[in-house]
């Protein structure tokens, strides 16, 4: 292989990695969704918009989604449901999205995801825990 082709292959590999890991496409069930901002405001009328957006930013960053899609997520979306939509096969290798999300929640909000976790945990229920923690200081 000519030496000049090595940098080109490296650039192609880098592009593919960033395309599929950092700006992952949304799972099929979520791709054509309308903005869920109104659902968040209904569910949390006293929460500041910036607080909701910051929480959703943590979620999309942890899962490697484009930041512009943060408001397509509903308070009713199950976290495990999103994960399962990304990895429908039980034999697939994941990119540790749940672990990254747990670390980010602990760093930003002091909340341990493992203490709240259950398979039915929704984004809204988790955000409610964060809001309660911020409002009561616990």
SSE topology sketch:
Blueprint: H1 5-22, H2 37-43, H3 49-63, H4 79-86, H5 97-109, H6 113-116, H7 123-136
Helix pairs in contact: 3-5
- The dominant shape is elongated
Tell me the structural class: mainly alpha
Approximately how much helix is present in the residues? 55-70%
Number of domains: 1
Nearest-angstrom radius of gyration?
A: 17 Å
Number of strands: 0
Question: Which tags fit this structure?
Answer:
138 residues, 0% strand, 7 helices
Give a verbal description of the structure.
The protein has 138 residues and is mainly α. It has one domain. 57% of the residues lie in helices and 0% in strands. It has seven helices and no strands. It has helices at 5-22, 37-43, 49-63, 79-86, 97-109, 113-116, 123-136. Helix 3 (49-63) packs antiparallel against helix 5 (97-109). The longest helix is centred in the N-terminal third of the chain and has 18 residues, at 5-22. It is elongated.
């Amino acid at each position: 292989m000519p030496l000049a082709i090595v940098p080109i292959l490296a650039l192609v590999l880098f592009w593919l990695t960033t395309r599929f890991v950092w700006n992952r496409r949304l799972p099929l069930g979520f791709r054509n969704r309308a903005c869920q901002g109104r659902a968040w405001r209904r569910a949390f009328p006293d929460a500041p918009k910036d607080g909701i957006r910051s929480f959703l930013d943590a979620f999309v960053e942890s899962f490697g989604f484009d930041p512009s899609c943060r408001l397509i997520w509903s308070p009713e979306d199950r976290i495990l449901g999103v994960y399962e939509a990304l990895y429908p096969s039980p034999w697939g290798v994941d990119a540790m999205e749940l672990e990254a999300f747990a670390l980010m929640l602990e760093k930003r909000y002091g909340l341990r995801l493992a203490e709240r976790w259950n398979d039915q945990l929704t984004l809204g229920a988790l955000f409610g825990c964060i809001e309660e923690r911020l409002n009561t200081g616990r």
